[in-house]
Amino acid sequence: MSDEAIEQLVALSERGVTQQEIPALALALADALACSSSAVNRGLAARDLSTLEDLTVAHSILDLDDIDWLTVQHPGSVVIPATLTTAHEVGCDGSQLATALSAGYRISLGAAAMLAPDMRSRWHVTAVCGAFGAGAASALLRGSDRETLTRTLALIASSVGGLAAAPRARNGAAVFTRVAAASLGLVAARCAERRLPFAPGIVSGPGGLAQVLAHAPARSISDVRGVGSVSLRLFPVTGFAHAAVWTAGTAPEVEGEIKKLQVSVSEATALVDGNEPWWNVGLAVGRSFVARDPFACDRESGLPPSVFVQGSKLPLDRATLTVHMMNGSRLELSGEAPGRMDEASTGGLFDRKAHDVLAVSGPQARSNAASLMRGGVAAGDDVLGWLPSPVVR
To answer: How far, in whole angstroms, is CA 31 from its chain's centroid?
Structure first.
């Protein structure tokens, strides 16, 4: 017997893929291929991507994999490598690939919705929740029935983990917890086929996952949307800064001399502000503001004004910017991080990310992803054939 929490996750996999989801899934896949290609081209990932570990590292090593701002996890970085690895092993058609990806995203987000939000202060939510998504995607591609999918998720619950110290280290340590989560998902799917036993109440029961990780009962899932609510990370700076960088980069031109920029971000974002360019929110905002281009936040394009960053009661994907003029006037702006998978404007932003940040062809990445979504994957397909080509900038 399973428990109610796992039954709710299984039910998420049975909703089916809507036509509105297909473009979002294709864009998520294109982004994964583009990130992986860029990592390979830079020598940061294995050149053949022949294993799950290689694929997961390639997708996430640049710290530009997708993000769900509500639960603060990166579902694609675990779900997509597990899905592609399984597809490479067993083969699938386009419909099966879409179903697996859709369920993987939905179950990752559903697992996060079940656990109390303060869980992320102790545990790496991408590793914990991504493992459930990876296992579900792999199990579905392997043709598992409902009982085997249930068993897969229960086996994952018995061993899932990943300490929050990994992402807080800000040195790439969280890449390994992604690899471990994707690996656990695949192993659980394979072991479920062999009907390995699992503990009843492994999520909701005494000593179960919810009690251990969240210090609270598993919550009822409501309104879990899946890939459409996930966003791309577009700009060459920590994702915590994306809302502020976008607001500064799209600010209107102002006349007169600027005294300073005052940036209000979430309290968590204010805490990550640091000296290294990738983590320096103020520096990225200043560069973006001078260039009026958020994609230029990693390079000098003129002398930026003084930037003061302060924490406030804002969500991670929101920011406000106040431009203080020497004459005493002020311009106040607010914005949120762009890049939602289900927004029409995101395709064009992805093409810019691919070209300007990743140095690969965005249109080719999208074309390759669309082809996989239509035609599926033949067992043993060459993974490198899916990657977009580098571009000359």
So the answer is: 10
Cα–Cα separations (whole angstroms), residue 84 to 39, 138, 196, 361: 17, 9, 24, 20
Rounded CA-CA distance 359/375 in Å is 27
Instruction: Find, among 7, 4, 8, 388, the residue nearest to 224 by Cα.
Output: 8
| Residue that is written with structure tokens 């281009």 in the block | 293
For residues 48 and 38, what is the distance between their CA atoms, to the nearest angstrom? 13
State pLDDT tens for residues 178-225: 999 999 999 999 999 999 999 999 999 999 999 999 899 999 897 888
Q: Which residues of 211-249 are buried (b: 16+ CB within 10 A; e: fewer)?
A: bebbeeebeebeebebbbbbbbbbbbbbbbbbbbbbbbb
* Angle (CA) 80 83 84, round 5°: 85
Domains of the chain: 4-234+342-386 (1.10.4100.10), 239-336 (3.30.1330.120)
Name beta bridge partners: 308.
262
Residues whose CB falls within 8 Å of the CB of residue 380, separated by 6 or more in sequence, listed in order: 88, 91
pTM, entire model: 0.96
Closest CA to 335 of 225, 266, 215, 245: 245
CB atoms within 10 A of CB 117: 15
Cβ atoms of residues 33 and 376 within 8 Å: no
C-alpha pair distances (Å), 296 with each of 286, 293, 333: 10, 5, 19
Q: Token pair 């996999």 is at which residue? A: 13
